User: Fold these one by one.
Assistant:
Number 1:
Amino acid sequence: MKYAYLLINFLTIIFPVLLSFDKRVQFQKSWKFIWPGMALTGLMFLFWDVLFTVKGVWSFNDSYITGIKFFELPLEEILFFLTVPFSCIFIYACLNYYVTWSIPQAVSKLISVLLILLSAAMLVTYHDRLYTLITFSLLLVLLVLLQFVFKSPWLNRYYMAYIVSLLPFYIVNGILTAVPIVMYNNAENIAKRVGTIPVEDHFYSMALLVMNVGFFEYFKRKAKPVNA
């Protein structure tokens, strides 16, 4: 049981890695665009993770981790910020290849606006809950920048990928919170759950993934030769 969280990380990434060599999607050719953004995003989220662990926002069940820790974080939790974004970018890339239909840009913008308004409302209502405060602050800032400053044309595709990613999200986070491997302090969140998963996890994941996809798209675009 000490390897339970490690096994979850392995199962999360093994199929996307193996399927990366599909002759049609050829996702392995895009790996070089993933690593820089994953490193930048991972550093930010690991900072919050250390803070949340120290402040008691969540804790880890020693029965299901190897015991190897860095800055109070289990090795498995650090790997989580590699395996999950990689797998979700894989979903995003597959949808871009196989699904020609996209959410209309007007609808995508409306989704962004609604999420921004929801984030603002949550900040006003639950500003005294650390997990809620950081999660919705980060999501609000990211969406304002991506939608209104950078006018990112890929957000509609991202929202589609996020919806698809909810299936593995519920499996993985469901196990982590039901066993439990990760234990949450309800005094630092709104104390509402979908099954055993805190509501904030959905939006924390959304912020994590949109930041990774944003960097992925940026480094892909940067690598394209400029037409004379």
Number 2:
Amino acid sequence: MDAVLENSDAVVKAFGYTGLLFVISGLASLLVGTVLAALRVGPVAVLRRAVAVYVTLIRNTPLLVVLLFFRIAGPKVGLRFDFIDVQVAGFNLNNIFTACVVGLTVYTSTFVCEALRSGVNAVPLGQAEAARAIGLTFGGAMREVILPQAFRASLPPLTSVQIALLKNTTVAGAVGVFEAFARMRSLTNDYTTQTVMIFVVFAIIFVVLVELISALSYAIERRWKVAR
């Protein structure tokens, strides 16, 4: 415990990086995943098949491989993030951080896509037919009728996806972002006699963060039920 208290500033900053990775990638993956889900169930057969192949490919690729691509292989083929170097409240949001955000977004959005697709499939067919009957285009029907209901139906799997994203941020430590897991590894190397306690403290903090996500999801679900 002394090791954590003595390095509390570094620990807080490490969890700050974890939080930034989670929030930015989480919001971006919801946006990208929603677009992918709309294309996945859309009327254009070529786009449906292309998105299906893309989602299957990314979902079955290890996250570390995806992050290594954007961090190492990407720049070799011109995919660079060197133009990004921002300091926000002491956090360095540089090209390495951005590459990890992009990698996490690309990976997580495919899981969001599949969760939302299951939600779309849960919406009664009559809802889509009614939307088309009153003159809504496919995009309008998705935006006004289908997606709002799909989000309600798929809230539990979406919550699981976001919890998985929080855990997946630990992989960013392998490619240069000094987030919580990387800081824990550094502390256990420096304080070998306190390894177990350091691990327990970090594990408890992660459990608390997961519980906060679950509580937020539960609150949203209850609000939607009341709104009905």
Number 3:
Amino acid sequence: MSSFLQAGELAQLAPAAASAYFLDVDGTLLEIKPRPQDVSADAPLRELLSRLAAGLNGALALVSGRAVDDLDQIFAPCSFPSAGLHGAEIRFADGARSRAESAVMDAARPELRLFAQTHPGLMLEDKGATLALHYRQRPELADEVRAALEKFARRPGLAVQEGKMVAELKQAQYEKGTAIEALLAARPFCGRTPVFIGDDLTDESGFDFVNRAGGVTIRVGAVGPTAARFFLSDPLAVRTQLRHVAATLDA
């Protein structure tokens, strides 16, 4: 059963000396905005993450549905090890990258682009290896969006990943849990206890893996069914907990 984290509790559960922090971005570190391109990290958040990364000996990574290059733009000039596209793209701490092929989306791309164009208010986000349909402006089209994606997800190796007012066509083998597992096997993350903080359905595979690894899992936002063992109310509460962790480094 999940419980709300109390003030400063994360620093006690996951001390920096022995932990590796994996952080979702939209809805976790930053509030979700109507248009993904409008999201940008403010200077205090960049400074906080940089302090934490230094205190963790580099064992801090972003884990997101966004592309890694997009994450770099949001947090510029900072750059962190990152898993993007729900694990289809990973940049390790040493700069090495793994990427899924984007050609598997070629058959779906033109039809989904046309679908978005003929349904005003929908936005197709073409990430190369994944295709996301955002329906925040047209929530009544949720079922139609899922049906459009599921038509292609019937093909072997593809799946639909649902999130907050977005559904995404992706390769089934990639998910945030596999991304965290890959990062945790590499330096400087290996040998540390994982911590994963996320906010929606796309993060559940990450919670599952981190729970199996004996780590700390935290769901941000509305209380509901989740594999995460703890809750925080919003991104502001996440920052507050991370500041407590940073304060232990200063001490």
